[in-house]
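hiii so um. not sure if this is the right channel but i have a protein structure encoded as tokens and i wanna go backwards to a sequence. like what aa goes where. can anyone help
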């Protein structure tokens, strides 16, 4: 079931974030795995959260022919991506502890918004998201048309 919607939350002093109920209700630990993977995404200033099963699915999708000798670009992407990915567990209060170094690197404030992004959740600055929201909505149809062109090619 895709993650949809948005919720405003706070990161507490111990870098914990409570997973909003609207997203928790779509997550089934038996189906999706009991842990999450957190990946910083500097291009958007966000943290991307993938369920354990989705992370594994996306990882193996590009590994149909694993190799001990990947080309240099693939090897560099592998080391960057996997060295910045952190596994985060859910505690009894449905919170995850976000890696402090990821929060600091992205400059995320305590007041954030959790966004449903289909196969993942994204954590972004609440103020930045709200400031850019109307511009993002205005671009939606242009992005859809651009992606449609790419799939036709």
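sure thing!! here u go:
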């Amino acid at each position: 079931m895709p993650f949809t919607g948005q919720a405003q939350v706070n990161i507490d002093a111990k870098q914990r974030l409570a997973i909003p109920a609207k997203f928790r209700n779509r997550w089934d630990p038996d189906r999706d795995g009991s842990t999450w993977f957190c990946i910083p995404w500097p291009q958007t200033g966000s943290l991307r959260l993938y369920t354990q099963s989705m992370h594994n699915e996306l990882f193996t999708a590009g590994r149909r022919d694993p190799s001990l000798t990947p080309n240099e670009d693939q090897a560099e992407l592998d080391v960057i991506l996997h060295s910045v990915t952190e596994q985060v567990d859910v505690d009894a209060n449905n919170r995850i502890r976000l890696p402090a170094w990821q929060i600091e690197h992205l400059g995320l404030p305590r007041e954030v918004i959790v966004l449903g992004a289909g196969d993942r959740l994204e954590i972004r600055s609440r103020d930045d998201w709200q400031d850019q929201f109307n511009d993002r909505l205005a671009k939606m149809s242009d992005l859809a048309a651009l992606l449609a062109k790419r799939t036709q090619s």
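oh and The mean pLDDT is 91.
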